[in-house]
Amino acid sequence: MLIGAPATEATFRAAAGAALQGAKPREHNAYKVELAQNTLVRALEQLVNA
Questions:
Q1: Taking the C-alpha atoms of 24, 8, 2 and 13 in order, what is their torsion angle to the nearest 10 degrees?
Q2: What is the Cα–Cα distance from 16 to 1, expressed in whole angstroms?
Q3: Predicted local confidence at residue 50, as pLDDT
Q4: d(CA 13, CA 9)
Q5: How far apart are CA 26 and CA 5, in angstroms?
Q6: SS3 42
Q7: 15-40 burial, b for 16+ CB within 10 Å, e for fewer?
Q8: % of the chain beyond a pLDDT of 70
Q9: What is the C-alpha to C-alpha distance for residues 36 and 10, in angstroms, rounded to an integer?
Q10: How far apart are CA 3 and CA 44, in angstroms?
Q11: Averaged confidence pLDDT in the chain
Q12: Residue 13, Cβ density class (10 Å: 0-12 exposed, 13-18 middle, ≥19 buried)
């Protein structure tokens, strides 16, 4: 999903969303899916800016 795509936040969010598409959070930890998505986006941004 990232190959050939522009290195933008929107691209990174789409890739993170695809990576977490099958995530099945439990009742009290649903926030962790969003946390994981944000972590992936930030890691990709840092790689681009390194």
A1: 10
A2: 10
A3: 85
A4: 6
A5: 33
A6: helix
A7: bbeeeeeeeeeeeeeeeeeeeebeeb
A8: 100
A9: 16
A10: 13
A11: 95
A12: middle
